[in-house]
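Researcher: Next entry: Palmitoyl-protein thioesterase 1 (Datura stramonium).
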Amino acid sequence: MNFTLIFIVLLTLQSITTYSLPFVVFYGISDSCSNGAITHFTELLSNWSGSSGHCIEIGNGAWDSWFMPFSKQIDFACEKLKKMSELREGYNIIGLSQGNMVGRGVIEFCDGGPPVRNLISLAGPHAGIASVPFCGSGILCSLADCLLKLAIYSNFIQDHLAPAGYIKIPTDIADYRKGCKFLPVLNNEVHRNCTLKKRFASLENLVLILFERDEILVPKQTSWFGSYPDGSFSTVLPAQKTKLYTEDWIGLKMLDEAGKVKFLNVSGSHLEISTSEMKKNILPYLVDNVSTTVTATSTSSDLLWPLSVRDFDQESNGVVEEILQLHTHAEKASLRLWKF
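Model: Predicted structure:
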């Protein structure tokens, strides 16, 4: 009798399908895949989810995160992704800060690339930022500071300084729309492109994670597509009050009304996240392809759950808590508010 029960359980386990899509990580400014925190972050999520995780290096890492324009960064990433055979059936993107600009660019501009299922955005400057992130010392900081003394929307700056591509000064909207070469295209602000909207709206989940003590993104609500209104620094509009949403330039409203947009928040400063917050806010969107078809009693449930999910549940109830700082420690980022 016991042998028969064991046999039935083992046979049933064979019918349980466990499949987690691979995921890729796009790091932020001044960073690279060699940053130990990025490596650790990727490995943790890969181990917890049972899926294959890859950090995508763009050019020379930290240097090119500053000085390679986004059109080239996206082309670089697109070609890499198309060569990764494991992504052919689809994959998820995890974007860290500026890395979300590359991730979204891949979704909207990468012709012939593998399909993206979920975009999980940590501190993404999706609606632009009204300040210029730069550093206090070091060669990257010195070069960036020199460039920033020039007109932010000039052709030279736009072609040679990546973050200039998503600077949106609310009191200088005319020059922004005329001179900014990346964000107005990405957000379909000027010339509506139905293909870009269709591609972005094809996501199964758009996970937008805001960091409550973020002082790098101004305003921090840009992580949720919130922004200053045109012409004013006085208040911040939530995403649902912006024209990008109400006129549905990129399909954000469409996704939201379908229940596919998750507005989440964590307690830390910019890209400071705990392992428990990672498990709560990121991991579910990496394992949502796990399918279990067995209804088990409480005494045998541990036998019937796939291993990765069971381990995740056990670790979630543990006492170990780790805080990850996902921005580079080599450069200390600060802010300067630019009003023109």
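Model: Note for the record: Residues 179 and 273 are 35 Å apart (CA to CA).
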